[in-house]
Amino acid sequence: MIKELPIVECIARARIPTTIDQKQHTYPEIFLHLYKNNKDNKEHLAIVFGEDIRSKSLFKRKHKDETQYERLIRGAYIGKLEPNRLIADEYKGEKLQFDEETGELIPNFTTNTYNKKVPVRIHSECFTGETAWSARCDCGEQFDLAGDYILKHGPSSPNNERHGVIVYLRQEGRGIGLSEKLKAYNLQDLGKDTVEANLLLNHPADARDFSIASSILLDLQLSEVDLLTNNPDKVKAIEIENKLKCVSRIPMVPLSWKETSNEIDYVDEDEHGKHHGIKSKEIESYLRTKIEKMGHLLTTPLTLHTNTDASSKSIE
Ligand SMILES: Nc1nc2c(ncn2[C@@H]2O[C@H](COP(=O)(O)OP(=O)(O)OP(=O)(O)O)[C@@H](O)[C@H]2O)c(=O)[nH]1
Ligand SMILES: [Zn+2]
């Protein structure tokens, strides 16, 4: 069955110098792409590692009279921005060419887009976990791990720039929004698990739609990805026949499980050789529910379960 894909358009892109990878003192630059789409009115994002991964819709000429300055300002330029630069489509002997009819970029061998297989994380917004230090979930940790993974394992170009993408979807609370998620948290404190709480509020266990992520990856002209996730639904949801393939799944093992699992080789250790993951009774129950009720592909460590039958279960 051919999936009907949302239409996405990258409306702006900007270079972000980062604070990540501090141990190696390389501080890589990333390129933040902001998208609009025809399905919801949210501004979804792609955090792109690799200057030469190019968004088709960003580079396309908006109209015949679009000026070079307008293109520079919305981020549709090659090379680097520097004071007094005036031309977006040319840089150090490279020149973009466009189809006169459609305004689309014509790929050529100097200005081609990077289209090899890259690691990708599809991440859903979580204000509580990413901003408010919540120990109820591992979203902040997963976000950081995805960046660390790309910087260690993403394919590199001759200038040592790693390639990968984090698609950041504005689907707070698995799509139910922050206010409903806060109500769900109160239900969880009343003894319900994360799935039961959603259902009691008349929401599905997971209200998300990952098709916008597929459209964004296709717009970035990627056709093969390694997906960083434990969620089998995401793998199924983002694949598009003959266009977008998930070649392999990279498990996201919680850092606090590191002592019982040797699956992470891309995280910096502290001076004592330790990693510091989230430890709380809430995260235990959050992860347990994901594994037992949402089919997440994690091998459960013994400490996670009170009942011995479940404790020996290996789901992968
Ligand atoms: N409704 C609800 N949403 C939650 C709760 N805890 C976290 N979330 C949301 O769950 C989403 C986390 O999703 P992700 O980490 O991207 O994906 P996932 O389905 O957990 O799968 P992974 O790729 O394995 O991490 C975010 O939108 C969070 O805001 C909760 O208790 N209830
Ligand atoms: Zn979260």
From TrEMBL:
It is an enzyme of class 3 (hydrolase). Its EC number is 3.5.4.25. Pathway: Cofactor biosynthesis; riboflavin biosynthesis. It catalyses: GTP + 4 H2O = 2,5-diamino-6-hydroxy-4-(5-phosphoribosylamino)-pyrimidine + formate + 2 phosphate + 3 H(+). Keywords: GTP-binding, Hydrolase, Nucleotide-binding, Riboflavin biosynthesis. Residues 115-250 form the GTP cyclohydrolase II domain. Pfam families: GTP_cyclohydro2. One of its GO terms (biological process) is riboflavin biosynthetic process. Belongs to the GTP cyclohydrolase II family. This is GTP cyclohydrolase II. The lineage of its organism: Eukaryota, Fungi, Dikarya, Ascomycota, Saccharomycotina.
